[in-house]
Specification:
- The protein starts with a helix and ends with a helix.
- The chain is built from 11 helices and 6 strands.
- Helix content is about 50%, strand content about 15%.
- The longest helix is centred in the middle third of the chain and has 23 residues.
- It is globular and about 60 Å long.
- It is an alpha/beta fold and about 230 residues long.
Amino acid sequence: HHYSNICRFGGAAFCASIQRDYGAQVFFHALIEVNIPVATAASISTATPNVSNRDTTTTSTGTNMNSQLIKYGVVERGHLIEDLTQWNHLYLAGRMHKPTLSIQTNPEIEEAQQTRNLPAALSTALLLLGGDGKGRIQIQQENQNQNQQQQQQQEIRYSTLFETIANLSYQGDPRLEVGGEDPNKVHKLVHAPGQMSRLVELYKDAMEDLAKEGILTISSAAAAAAAAAAATTT
């Protein structure tokens, strides 16, 4: 019932052809108002800070519901996997560089995300940030003072690393140039309450793989912070 008039007129075949043949191969339905149980809405808002909360109502069974504005996209599984593994458009792949809330998992998508998309995002961010000439970078905890950072390796704070990753999909975005997008969006995506620990957990495996190869070193303080973050998210 929430389809636009043109989608209602064209039907499923029209929507599918637009999704397959144009743009970033994802068809979005926007400004959809839905009622979600308050507990579920709180989880969604925490994991995805840009969700818009509206009024709260109570059903006849006593369940408190939040009215929220959402948008959802429709994409073929193969196209999503291609974007995750090849960055054809870096659209959905870019969105999945940030924490997401999985309603239903798929082994192929999970594998593409964990083995290709996230490691590629981490490696790209590290290349953009530069190294010490020997390809070694050390990740520091946010509150580690400058006296502890006088080492031969280049040191990068988690916030700098994750802001660089979050910004990858916005590189060249004309909306940022013309004021059509919040210029502080990347900062908000990384520094929303609880988001730093989610990002640490999301990239934990990819960082550990680079550490095993000697490319990345995680300071003991940062490692302890990552372990604490993992414990609170499991």
